[in-house]
Each structure stands twice: as structure tokens, then as C-alpha cells.
Request: fold
Amino acid sequence: MNTLLLSHELLVLALGLLVLLADLWLPRGLRRHLGYAAAAGLAGILLFSFLAIRVAPGEVQYAFFEMYALDGLALFFKRFSLLAALMVLLMSVEFAESMPTGVSEYYALTLFALLGMLLASSANDFALLFVSLELITITFYVLASFHRSRMTSLEAGVKYLIIGALSTGFTVYGIALVYGLTGKLNFNELAAVSSSLGGNRLFLFGMVLILAGLGFKIAAVPFQIWAPDVYQGAPVPTTAFLAVGSKAAGFVLLLRVLFVAVPEVSFQWGSLLIVLSAITILYGNLCAIPQRNLKRLLGYSSIAHAGYLLLGIAALSRDGQSAVLYYLGGYLFTLLGAFTVLCLVMRQVESEDIASLAGLGQRSPLLAATLTLAMVSLAGLPPLAGFVGKFLLLKSVIAQAPAQPGYYGLAFVAIAGVVISLYYYFGVIRAIYWSRTAPDLSPIQPSAPIRAALYACIAGMFYLGLFPGTLVNLTEEVVKVLR
Amino acid sequence: MTADLLFYLFAACTLVCGFLVIANPFSLNPVTSAMFLVLTMVFLAGLFVLLHAFFLAAIQVLVYAGAVMVLFLFVIMLLDLKAEERRRLKVFGITTGLIAVGAILFIFLNTLAQAPLGASTTPELEGTTMALGKLLFTRYLLPFEVVSVLLLVAMIGAIFLSKKELK
Reply:
């Protein structure tokens, strides 16, 4: 058994258990700094991953009866989630001041959620898909309600629990139908028989239910209803991890299910995906316009971004798939930068209204610059990462248009969405620099690790915006394992 | 023949009890709903027996009907949900719910009517404890082990969220 393929997972699991145990012996004052140790551990694992783990392009290594696959795609998402978790942990150390207790548990749970994402990126079997999804979701129930003393946080936890349980029900039912018809759970085995099942409506019904379950995870219409409330109520680091990590895990599973397990079926589903993507983009962008609460605004914007990412999947081509990966890469730096700023500002102001950003330009030029750049990148303006990502997605969609005119409509909707989004993203920037009244002008001093994380986010946004070549080559290499 | 008869009996009882859990016309008492849920679980166990999944049937009775539901009942009785009994059902909720259920039911029945059932080879179910144990510790070892982490997370979460005093 080549258990060594699971070295990322085993290391993260060990780190999580260590953090949990270290809490027993550490004096209370030091517990907050356990987050730095955990982040350093993740940095070590990331370094190990880059130095020691190699996968030849197009090669897939299997473990546990082909249930677990290590290929370029899995490795890309593993490194992606490790990086996201690292920044989230740094953010949580800042956030920990407002938590009365359970700081180490917060770090440990973040690591366990990361474990779920690592497993999800390698899942090549519905059994592992289900268990890793549940590991992510159940951890997030707890992480979302971690601010026990706040009603909004508990409400976020309960809402996520109820809707998450419902989506789990959909997924299980879908898997049961697929298994009942084929007797197979493994994606490779399913791929061998799925070509003959493309016309079987019971099989398609099962696949639609599985798609619905994954739709909840990425917050795509019509399964988006939880996102704004949960984003608003959950603690900021949880929201950040939910928006980046959980969404990415949903997308890697979607890619694998659609393009490894049932490619024949998904090529029939072009129109369904076009409609879903278009409605998601419009819904997210239109609902974000009236929002005054910054976290809620980002919740709606994350729905819109799920729609943009679905563009790449709806394109049903290699270019589309690689554009999804590229977009997620840019999204990571952009969103984590924005949430880190929110984490610092909201701690000081205790209000989440956009107006609380007033005077941020004077209070901390670094924070103001990061948030501004993040908003520009989310809106998709050059020369930042968001622009290149959206450009690649649109390009992949338009390349498909001659065969199916529906893609022209989809591209039009996406561009309209970008134009709408300019309004609310620039509302945030206006609040930072051009607010009339600024109640609080005390300077904010971010700690050294946070400053480093912010600089890394800015560098990431600029690098991916100005020199897209490296990552584009990598993502094109990586998606060769998909159909 | 007997098996067919038993199947329809158990299936009908499951459906009726399941309906009574969520929409009991005679009582809005949550305890009654929970008791009907216990009955639903028991009849489901009967269906599992008919599928030769004996282990699953035993677990269904022991864990779900026995342990989990008793806990449910404890919680319901401790919470004293008097308000729930007086609650009026909202027309909006009922209509949207019925439309959603109806739509899914329509698609499902439509699908079932046109699906070539029995054409594909459904796997022979070997529900003995030994076969199941072997599968769990060989083929499905990885998800099985991951579930242990899941349980750890659930335990941490339950303790953290329900601890009385925050220290």
C-alpha cells in the first residue's frame, strides 16, 4: 500500500492533533501564539510538498484501490488549500483576542477542515468524496458558531447546519441512485460504464442530485441562500476559509465528478451549466448592490464569483478547466487580503458597516492599499489577478460559441455582471478614501506576520496579473488528467 | 411472494409513519413526532432485512431506533417545546414546500417510469457482518479512518459549544 502518497494528509493530521494536545500544557497567555506555531508547521508542509513531492505531467498515482488519486490536479489544490489555511491561521491569531476561550480548538479545527480539503482534492471515489465533504462541512458548523456569545454567529452556525444537512441528504441520495444502477463508486470504474448510461434517466437523476449537493458547497444558484447569512455571522477567519478553501474543494470535486467520472454525461449538460452560471452571476451581483454590511457584501460577491468560475466548467473544454484553476489562484490572494484587512479593522471598530472603513487611508495606508487592490482585482480590472482570470474564463467560453450560440449570451451576461460589480466594489473604495466623516482616526498597527501576509497577497495579485505565463502553463499541464 | 408482500407492507408503513412525523393531523406534539420517527426507523430496518442486509438492519434498530432517538426524546422533553404545539402553519411555507416536493416527485416518477430497471446488473447484496467488516477494513479503509477524524471534530465541537462556562 503506497500510504506515502498521503503524506500531506498525515502531516496535517499530526499537526492538528499536536495543537490539540499542546493546549493541555501551555499556559493560558501563550495559547494564542500556538497559531503561529501551527502556521509555521503548515509552511513547513508546504515547503516539503514543493521539495519532495513530484508528479509527472499527466501521471496519476493511486492508493487504496484507486480511491485516492495523487495527480497534478490534486497537488495543485493541496498546495492551494495549504496556503489558504496558513493565511487563515495568521488571521485567527489576530482574531483570537476577541475570543474568550477555545483558541487552540479553533486552530485545531481549522487544520481538520484543511485535512478534509486535502482529501477532497484527491477523492477518486464517491465514498471518499462524501466523507471528505462531511469532514469539511461538519468542521465548518463548529467554526461558524465559534463566537458563542454572539447571536449572529450562532445563527450562522445553525443555518449552515440545516442547509448543509439538507445538501448532504441530496448528495447521499444521488450517490445511492448511481450505485444502485451501476454497483460502482469509483470514478474510474464509473467512467468505463458511464458512456452507456448517458441516456438512462435514473442515472442522470442521481447525477443531478450529486450536482445539487456540490452546488451547495460552491454557493451556486439555486443553492446559494445560506451564503450571505453565514458569511455575515461567522467569525472573519472562518468566513475567509469558507469563501476560499471550501469553495475550492467544491470546485475540485465538481471537476473530478464531471470530467473524470461521467464525462459523457457532462458533455450533454452544456445548456444546464450555461443557465446555472448566468443566473448565479446575475443573482450575486444584483443582490450585492444594496448591501451595507461588508461581510454580507462579500457573501453576495462570492456567489457571483461562483458563477464566474462556473463559466469555465460550462465551457466544457480544457481551456475552461485550466481557467477555473487560474481564477481560483488569483481569488485566493485577493479574497484573503480583503478578509485580513476586515479582520483587523472590524476588531477595532466592532461594526461591520462599510462606513466603518472611513478614514482607513489615514489610519493605515497598507491596509487601505490592500483592500483597494483586492476590490479592484475582484472587480476584474487590469493589471491585477482578477482581470487575467476573468479574461481566460471569457476566452474559453467564447471559443465554444461557434458550436453553441448560447455561449455568446453567457459571455454577455458575464460582462454585464462585471459592469454591475464595479458599482459596489467602488463603493467600498470610496468609503476608504472619500468619506466625509471619520469617527475614529487612531492608527492601526498590524503585527509583523500579518504585514508579511498582506505584502504576499499584494505581490500575488500583481504577479498573477502581470506575469500570468507561469501559472497558465502549470494549470494547462494539470488539467490534462481531466477529460 | 411473501417477500413481496412484506416489502409492500414495510414500505407502506414507512411512508405513513414518515408522513406522520412531519404532518400529524391529530397532534402537534414533538414527542409524538419523535415516536413516529422511531417507528419509521424500525420499518426501514425491516426493508433492510428483506434486502439481506442483516447487519445494517440490526444497526438501524440498535443505533437509530434505540440510541439516537432516545437522545432526541430526552432533548425534546428537556426543552419543553410548548410553543411548538401552538404554532400555526404558514400558507406561504406550505405552498412553496408542496410545489418543491411536487416538482421533485414529478421528475422522480417520470424518471422511474422511463428507466430500464433491471436491465443493468445490480450488485448482489452480501449484508453479512463478516463481508461488511472485510470491505470496511480493505477496500474502504481510507474513508473508514477519516470518519474517526470526523468523530473527533464532532466531539470537540459538541464540547466547545455546549460547555457551560467559558474559561
User: Anything to note?
Assistant: Chain B has a mean pLDDT of 84. Chain B has two domains: 2-116, 128-167.
